[in-house]
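Quick one:
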Amino acid sequence: MKPVVSVMNAWSCVVISLFAIVILSVLGSLFKSEHHGFTGSEGEPEDGGAVAASIFTAVIVYAGFFVFCAFQAYLHMRARRGGAISLS
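Output:
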């Protein structure tokens, strides 16, 4: 199997997705727990659970990106080592 994206794009996507998963998970947890700094004041959302659900949906999307890009990076590493089986 050959990689679809370049090696630089694959590793950049892995790093960005990992940071997004961590940061959004923390934000989602704070909204879910109705933290006073994120809900309840004027101009803030009243339903922290709904906001948390949206944020956790984004975490799932970024987890999908992470898995795809990590697999692409793995394919690049395998091809560089000559581990891919080729009949041509």
